[in-house]
Request: fold
Amino acid sequence: MFDDLLALDIFQYQSRHNALYRQYLSLLGVSPEAITRVEEIPFLPIRFFKSHPVQTGAWEPALAFASSGTTAAATSRHLLRDSGFYRRNARRGFAHFYGPVEDYCVLALLPSYLERSGSSLVFMAEDFIRQSRYPESGFFLYNTKELIGILADCKKNAVPTLLLGVSFALWELAEQYPMDLGGLAIMETGGMKGRRREITRKELHSILMAAFRVETIHSEYGMTELLSQAYSRGGGLFRPAPTMRVLAREITDPFALQQSGKTGALNIIDLANLDTISFIATDDLGRVYEDGSFEVLGRLDASDARGCNLLVQDV
Reply:
C-alpha cells in the first residue's frame, strides 16, 4: 500500500537537497514547510530530464538510463546511484502482481530497444531473464522462429511464460505467426511511434487476442524517468506498484488536480526515485480512479516524444 507519510518525508528531503527542484519550488513561490498533504506537492515537469541533471544529494552516478530520441537534446537521461536498487525494486513490483519472476520463462521481444543503449526496459528485462529458472528465457531480435518454437513448447508443457514485447513487434508477430498461446501471459510495453500505423491500445489488444487466442493482453507502464512500473492484467487498466501513485491534473491548469475518472494529464509519485525526483508531471493523458488504478489514453497535444506542455519558466 502506498505510504503518503513517506511521500511527504521524501518531498521535504528532496526540496532541501535537490538544487533543481528547490529552485523550481522557489520560482513557484512554494514554501515546502507549508505542504502537509500529498495532493499539495508541486510536480516537476518531465522535460527537465532532457535539459538538466536531476539529482538529489551529492553522489557519482553508477549508470544512466536514456530515452529514445534523434538528437541529444531530445533525449531524457535518468541518473542512477545504485543499479542494484533498480533491479530489486523492479522485481518487487512485478512480484506484487504476478509472483516471483524466477517462476516464469521470460521471453523478451524488444527490437527497437535492444538496438540502442541505455534502455531501462532492456535493463529490467535482462535482469528478469537472469532471474528466471528456465534456460529458454532470453531476448529475441531476428531469431523469430526460435521464439515460436519455445512458445509452442511452453504452451505444450504448461510452463508459466511471460512474453514481454514492444507493441509493434507483437503486432508483427501476430500477423506473421498467429498461434494458440492460451494460458501464457503476453505483455505489451507500448512503443508504436514511427514503426507502425498508430492504433489505440484497445485495437492492438483485439488484434493480439484474436491472433494468439488468449482472453486478455497484459501491459507494462514505465518510462526512463521512473524506477517503478505499473501493470495491467487486461483491458488497459493499470495498477501501480506499491512505490508508485498516480494522480491526474487538469490540462488547462497544471497545478490543479483533476477529479476521479475524468481525463487529465498524469502526475506520478515514484518513491523509488529517492536520489533523483519522486514527483513528476508527465505528458501522458489518462484517467485515475478512486482505487488508484488508471488508464493511459495518449499524449498531450503539442508535446513531443518526451517534451512538456506546461508553461512554466525554465529553471
